[in-house]
Input
Amino acid sequence: MNGHGRIPILKVGRVLVVPIQVDMDDQTVLLLQERILTELERTGARGVLIDISLLEMVDSFIGRMLSDIAAMARIMDARTVVVGMQPAVAITLVELGLELNGVDTVLNVDEGIKLLRDEFGIGAEEAFDGGLNFVGEQINPS
Amino acid sequence: MENRSIPLETERDIAVARNEVRNIASQLGFRIIDQTRLTTVASELARNIVKYAGRGRLITQSASSATGKRGLRLIFEDEGPGIADVDLAMRDGYSTGGGLGKGLPGSKRMVDEFKIESIAGQGTRVTVVRWIH
Ligand SMILES: Nc1ncnc2c1ncn2[C@@H]1O[C@H](COP(=O)(O)OP(=O)(O)OP(=O)(O)O)[C@@H](O)[C@H]1O
Ligand SMILES: [Mg+2]
Output
């Protein structure tokens, strides 16, 4: 992958949706973390839904980013849900001994939306068109 | 497969190393879960070199055992500061760099063979092998 900050952050209802589509180098990981927090503050979103279904690997660096985002989002009164972890990634996370502290993991985006709504009362589905199509405004598309 | 040497100097090289390892592992016929293990190990050990030694290299070799198993050997070596107490460094949670201390012990759990050699002041070499099961 080339270029930093190519990962879009979408605002859907009161939820930030972050579809990670590429293998990220460390710089990109740190930049993404920063952008998510900036957007949380700017938009007042209450949930962060990070889709990692296309991530083929989560090492200690990315694992730590996910926990850090959850911890910082929590301070800003937002919940973080990670969706779509590949089975092989889940296995290596356990073997590495990483616990994604403060991060809820679910199988797919629909379940992530449901969790945010049912458990935390954070609505996003009204902005969804047929469940999986993001129609929210795209912020920071750079 | 020919031996390859991949330089590890910048953070970008860590991503390059893990892509190489995934491609090689896939070509050799490893199943997805083992490709993922090897890629994760490459990411952890390459990052250790860039972070603690500044620079080094990854050498990839196809391996075969006395009993006819085939596999992949990865050698991560550097001429950095070395590790004063290897037993300590292998412990879960031990980190001198504000990390989680999972890279070395976690990598060991994801491979079939794991050897770490380090001499203070001279450098570190970590050799891992995963067999195709
Ligand atoms: N190539 C190396 N050269 C010098 N010291 C090293 C090297 N690799 C590891 N170490 C030392 O061993 C310690 C443990 O490494 P390990 O990868 O397990 O954890 P970490 O890098 O500190 O944290 P994490 O990998 O979980 O982010 C490091 O903190 C460092 O002191
Ligand atoms: Mg490490």
